[in-house]
Amino acid sequence: MRTDTLLNIRQISTQPEQLLTSILQKSAQLGEINQKLHSFLPKTFQIAVTVGNLSNNVLVLLVDSPTAHSQLRFKTGDMLTFLRQNGFPYLIRIDIKTRCSTKKKPDMPGEKKNKIERRLSDSAHLALRDLAENSPKEISEILNRMCETDKRKRK
Question: Which helix (H) or strand (E) holds 66?
């Protein structure tokens, strides 16, 4: 992630409504593009393709396999034309990325699960405390619980 797009915790705490509104608008936009794209794609691709991001008028599609990736690469011109004609004229190009496989082998009976618990850095812990102090009650309670959980890990 680029550093100029990272949000400062103080910015989030001072403008939560504005930030939430922009997140919801982007989510709705991505959902609409995803829906339009699926109406264009053959059924075999509808399952394997999803919209990943839209940044600087470049649409990023995520695909499940390298095979689907190579097949879709040949359709990017048609997809771009279709999306431009159906409400998204500002799109410059479409990038396709293959998702990493997140499937893991099933747990064997009696096998121990290795759950790694990580504690927060000191600066992250202090930032959460600071944010909790300057947040509405509901959010403050959640942040304080996170700090308490981290406090137990520190002992």
Answer: helix 66-73
